[in-house]
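Handout, page 2. Input:
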Amino acid sequence: MKTKEKTIDIAKQKYLLFVDTETIGSLFVKESVLPFEIGIKVFDTETEKVVKEKSYLIRKFFNNKFIMLSTFSATKYPNYFEKLENDKRYKNCSVNDMAQDLTKIINRYNIKIMVAHNGLFDKQAIERLCEEFGTDNPIEKLDLLDTMEISKVITYSKDYSNYCLKFENIKNSINESAFITNSGRVRTTAQAIYCYLSNNENFEEKHTGLEDIDIEIEIFKESIKRLGNTIVKLNSTPTWREWSIVKED
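Output:
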């Protein structure tokens, strides 16, 4: 069931839950996508600091080398083992353990809103995971703030369009333009937006949950700054058609 859109003053929310998932399955068949990693960071809106962070590596998938080596993150698989050994933020766990631990964090910080870039993808991936394993969904009752929605204040700008056109020949990991889509629109990925904000056209996302959240936090902060107020729309995920064509064939 689609959650009703609404507007709120985000400054009245002490804590936000930033979420990023890394997945197995085909990105072209969304029903098959399930997360093997769920990264979360609790963000304090008053101090603009992260006060809690965890990466849940779902044991059923992560411990299956054949599944992991078929994912987009195959080359990073060895790095995850290193992090499990040396970084207490990372936890190899069951879906049920993830759900219970994340529920405790949500309750402890009285979190009402999750934040993610193209957030419906992450929210639905976690929903499918919990359904698949018969576990209560810890984020089911959270509203969604999509940074792709609030960053329209950046991506609708002429300056952003000019930036994307300037670097349209830079390729992404699938050998397409990292800045202009095949339909001639600006890309609104977190990577493209962060390239613009950091003035580094060669920046590449790490495609690991915790590291990708860092740039989404920066996109969130800059978007709020440029909006000039803290009134945001929840439960709204834009589609690519909402951006004008900036390059004709």
